[in-house]
Amino acid sequence: MIKFETLSRHPNGSQEERRRYPRMIASVQIELRPEGMDVPMRLETTDVSLGGCYVEMALTLDIGTKLGIVFWLGEQKVVTTGVAVTRHSQFGNGIEFTGMSSQDQNMLRRFLDSLDASHAPSALMAM
Fold it and tell me: Which residues in the chain belong to E strands, given as ranges?
């Protein structure tokens, strides 16, 4: 099951939102491959947007770590590059997508739009 909601500001409420795209809380299986590593880290997102995602992990990545990224939206594979832009020690990393093709970006946009359309606020309250 994919859980989601649109987040409009920083979760702790203390900072103004700086993201370029709205994020949706969504659990998506993702593989991160830090530059120079042969084995991918298989993780799950906590939220996703057109600009990036957040992944929970106990052993976090250093800010600036460049990544190869693969994730699946249903039957569709998305391949991109990214960089770790935030780090919360022993909790997770914020990842910015940096090399997504326009085709994959459109696929991600449709996925996010379908989540938003199929789960209006009234549907969220019923859950």
Answer: 6-7, 23-25, 29-34, 41-48, 52-56, 66-73, 76-88, 92-97
80 beta partners? 69
**3-state SS of the chain: helix, strand, coil percent to 5?**
20, 40, 40
pLDDT digits (tens, 9 = 90+) for 13-42: 444 456 678 888 899 999 999 999 999 999
Classify domain 25-120 at the CATH class level: mainly beta
- The amino acid at residue 23 is R
Q: How many residues does the chain have?
A: 127
Rounded Cα gap, residues 57 and 40, in angstroms? 13
